[in-house]
Amino acid sequence: MESILGLLVAPIILFTIFVAPIWLILHYRSKKQVNKGLSDEERMQLNQMAEQVEKMRDRIKTLERILDADAPNWREHI
């Protein structure tokens, strides 16, 4: 029984001294960043992507209207 405890003491001490504090620091740092929200740059990038999505949506609708006029049965071949 003592030999098993002897084998576990060193890893537990190492974990407590080195791993646990680093783990806690990184955990709470990431929580802080999540609660902080988006930065101004990230918000700007998100808005740019949303604008690009709208443009692509309009282009797709236009292409579908053209295909509907030129080849009414095109959707059946997808």
Automatic annotation (TrEMBL):
Entry coiled-coil feature ranges: 39-66
* Segments crossing the lipid bilayer: 6-26
GO terms of biological process kind:
phage shock; regulation of DNA-templated transcription
- The superkingdom listed in its UniProt entry is Bacteria
Q: Which UniProt keywords apply?
A: Coiled coil, Membrane, Transmembrane, Transmembrane helix
Q: What is this protein called?
A: Envelope stress response membrane protein PspB
The record lists the organism as Idiomarina aquatica
